């Protein structure tokens, strides 16, 4: 049975023609879902914001996915799962992958390391294209290589999906996608434009973050129109790895839903509010080098949770570099207890001073510039393996309250 209905979705009036009577329409501040069990057509009365440069391309889409790390891997997995689970009814016809060159890592740069996205693509027999080092300015975008594309000499992909890729895509590449391109960004744009939004959210003690699906801008990183956006509370004591994992899963789910109803979201894309732009520049190695007379315990705790996966917290001990691992911010009560336990020792609580309870060598505590203590459970001396603080104290004769870490 065919029937029609009219409804208002926000400030847009829509007309829906149905073949079944099982319409499921859910509306929230960030998205709506229409049951995929019905055949529907929506006519939006407000079309002034539609991108008229895009061709009328219907699913299923040929997707060229640009990615590298574990954050982008979640989105690629979701696309592959969607294609496999829905089969011929999927909005994904084919997926090919673009990855950065393999990296040399380890001591002496002797180990060749492939990205998580490349490893997954190999395991799932996806076609892989390797980007040149540093820039795509002279890179020629490949033609689709699925059997149908080869047979009919189809020379362009429908959609470019870019997730944590690290390259700027020049206009000539963006304009090659017949249905446009999009990016999954782990912040509430325009807040935290840049390479390290997760790290800066932790560093700044934010209580909220989110995911933005944006169109790719022809000239500026992270300045595209917003297709979708959802917010979420940042769990207390989040590390980069734990928050990345949560946001990667949320981003992958939002990407799939955006692609499913792409015409609607492209037609209603929102410009970013340029008055609210903040930056999240790349993390540098020197950020992990501690100056004890300039850092509070709270700041050091945030710094450890935000960047230590990439650059370990580093200081000096008897003129040798030492990394501090398993760092945490003890409660006020715990700090007072440790001070009470060493009350019989004359301690100069100047920044960098190392103290510990001789009856329990599980942790050391270091004084910061606000007279608060930071806790540490393991260390790694330069050119040595990571060891417990108990082994370090015994091996290096560290005296509680009498020895200090030196600022770098």
UniProtKB/TrEMBL annotation:
Enzyme class: transferase
GO cellular component entries: mitochondrion
Entry-linked CDD domains: FMT_core_Met-tRNA-FMT_N
EC nos: 2.1.2.9
Domain Formyl transferase C-terminal: 282-396
Protein family membership: Belongs to the Fmt family.
The protein, known as: Methionyl-tRNA formyltransferase, mitochondrial
Protein source organism: Gigaspora margarita
